[in-house]
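Re: the request from the purification team.
They wanted to know what the chain is likely to look like in 3D before they choose a buffer screen. I agreed to run a prediction and write the result into the notebook, where they can find it.
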Amino acid sequence: MLRLILLWWLAGAWILPVQAVHFLPLSIEELAAQAQLVVQGTVLSRACQQDEAGRIYTRVELQVKEVWKGQLAETRLTLVHGGGVVGEKRTVVTGQAELAVGEEVVVFLVFNARGEAVLVGLRQGAFHVQTPAAGGEAQAGNGFAHAPRLPSGAAGLMPQTAPPRTWVPLSELRRRVKELEARP
């Protein structure tokens, strides 16, 4: 009997809550179409706060290097997202982007009812930029696969044979956002 109780206790001790988030992946073009503002910049700071209703959120300040879509009057931008740690209280929003101080990012943003910038599609709206140490072209990725874009006018004419990629050249990401912005 003691063995059975011990076995039951051990089995229960190792069972941890598991959470899954299912995303309908958004293409670069869908992210850009939904975004009111797309910027490339560097994360300057992160600060977790708690509002009057007790919700914990994080404010992320960016130094904007370039605006790819929309308009921005200043070179600094603050975006907000749910979750963070305030004192001993922690709130986790599954699927939210993690933006680290000092990292270069491209963010796809909309403005909420309070006028605060928020990411389109949670972490899908934040591309982390990496530049190879040995030189070469910077790459951007958000953890989702992005199919290479067919040449202009070739849609439906050529089968897509290249596999989707999780990292795309930063210049391609910029071009694809700008092309969408330029369409009538």
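For the purification team: The longest strand covers residues 37-50.
Please add any questions underneath this entry.
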